[in-house]
Amino acid sequence: MSLRVALIQTRTPATQEAALAHTAPLIEQAVGQGAQLIVTPEGSNLLQRDRAQMLQVLKPIEDDAFVQGVRALAAKHGVWILIGSALVAVAGDKAANRAVLISGSGEIVQTYDKLHMFDVDLPNGDRYRESSLYQPGSEAKIAQTPWGPLGLTICYDMRFPHLYRALSKAGVGLFAVPAAFTRPTGEAHWDVLLRARAIENGAFVLAAAQGGTHEDGRATWGHSMVVDPWGHVVARADGDEPGVVIADIDLAMVDTTRQAIPSLKNERPFEGPST
Question: For site-directed labelling of 107, which of 27, 250, 257, 270 has its Cα 20 to 30 A away?
Fold first, then answer.
């Protein structure tokens, strides 16, 4: 089965309304290029590093102007859109970093809350504590689409290969990995991690990214890409600028690759190392 996918690379501003105005023309462009499944990055609805300001503007998913605007676009054009993640209000003073898959009728068919929090101290002095604001998810999620099951993951999740292995063993051959990667980690690890997840599992990877310097001062890596099950990058953005990446993928390649290198079948249980 063939599928035309579009990755939307954005430089998301700090409000939901501005984010929709920024992203909607790119979605329209992808529709015009025949995309059947459109994927946007992590934090598509707003990016704001200041915790107090973020809490002031966060909305529940049903009241979020970006989410509702993208639902309307999906219904208007009859295309499936994965909001790579929307940052939305949940109970208390926490937020959720939530992937939202929308069908061609505009309905939300699956959501996924990011499992792994980016709590790190980078060598350049940058410090991140996602757990101070975001409530992590507690379960892996698979979305059923007209092209088969889609494994939902977000950004930092890509550093945890067991998540992708579990999704693969559940029948997934297509992973979404939307991201807002920092520039230092993106330059060092973006390509190799995405290709590794594809190769290890014989699966396609759809990685839509934020790119450039944002209103809140953060700098993200960009370089959105589609990777095939053999680890080839079949389409990618050249840099950080907002835009659309189109790729035609043959989903039959998942089966042929897994037959050639049957690592999912060859995997064996083992005992942990002795100390």
Answer: 250
